[in-house]
Amino acid sequence: PRPRAPITVVGGGGAGGGEALIQSAEIDALTFTGSLQTGRRVAVATAGNLVRCQLEMGSKNALVVMDDADLELAVECALNGAFFGTGQKCTASSRLIVCDGIHDRFVEALRLRMRQLKVGHALEAGVQIGPVADARQLEQNLAYLQLAEAEGATLIEGGERLQLACDGYYMRPALFINSRNDMRINREEVFGPIACVIRVRDFEEALATLNDTEYGLTAGIITQSLRHASHFKRRAQTGCVMVNLPTAGTDYHVPFGGRKASSFGPREQGQYARDFYTVVKTTYLRP
């Protein structure tokens, strides 16, 4: 049998082991998943040693809901993409860009579904939303709620911290309306169960709003129009596009990555991942 390559797992903080790795000239390549700020440091450090680098960084994904959308499907996709995994996914749709004609019905239907979500211990039967990662993340989430309201957005559902029988950092998923794309809550990655509805007139404004961000990881559209879906797939400035699906669902067999400040270097996953983990060798031979 073919011998298996050894795998070594090194535990520790980024300031120790991580810093040693990115500064080392003894490695062939380095792949990193984390914040944009840290990713930039990794890119600079590895470039100095000519070490190949692959980065997956921040995101501010959006789900576009068109006037012709199936309302029930739109609500389920928004619920799944924005709140499942406690919103702690790089593919989470924290911006919900909704057209005028369906806006009010969508918001009301989403509020009703949010009230049905069960928050609690992640291993307890029936629980759909577990705790956030730690106290620091919970504090950040609650601070963003205050910031969004200070900027003029309206909190219409959830957002409160929950004290449950099982100790943990629980909060009810939050939904804002009357938000604008230039608000910090819609510019910065929160990484929590918080979604903001941005009201738009039509497809063109929805697409422009979607692309008005420094990030470009995933984007979704809910529509029954093949023309809009096809146009969206071509013009959405993201590495992954979902049509009538949540933004947070990805398949490990296909390439994964984003555009702009979301990703750098070859794609992860699928056959494209071999571009990063292997080196092409050209051989000339005289028989």
Note down, in words, how this protein is organized.
α2 links the parallel β1 and β2. The chain is built from 8 helices and 12 strands. The strands form 3 sheets. It has a 7-stranded mixed β-sheet, sandwiched between helices. The protein is α/β, with parallel strands linked by helices and 287 residues long.
- Weakly predicted, low-confidence segments: none
Question: How do the strands of the widest beta sheet line up side by side?
Answer: 5-8-9-4-3-10-11
Q: Which class do the helix and strand fractions yield?
A: alpha/beta
Give Rg in angstroms: 21 Å
Outline, from the CA principal axes? Answer: globular
Kindly state the percentage of residues in helix: 25-40%
The total of helices stands at 8
Features:
single chain; globular; 12 strands; 3-stranded mixed β-sheet; 7-stranded mixed β-sheet; alpha/beta; 8 helices; 287 residues
Question: Which SSEs are present, and which pair or pack?
Answer:
Elements: H1 14-23, E1 29-33, H2 36-48, E2 52-56, E3 62-65, H3 71-83, E4 95-99, H4 100-115, H5 135-151, E5 154-157, E6 161-162, E7 170-171, E8 174-177, E9 194-200, H6 203-211, E10 218-222, H7 226-235, E11 240-243, E12 263-264, H8 274-277
Parallel strand pairs: 1-2, 3-4, 3-10, 4-9, 8-9, 10-11
Antiparallel strand pairs: 2-12, 5-8, 6-7
Helix pairs in contact: 3-4
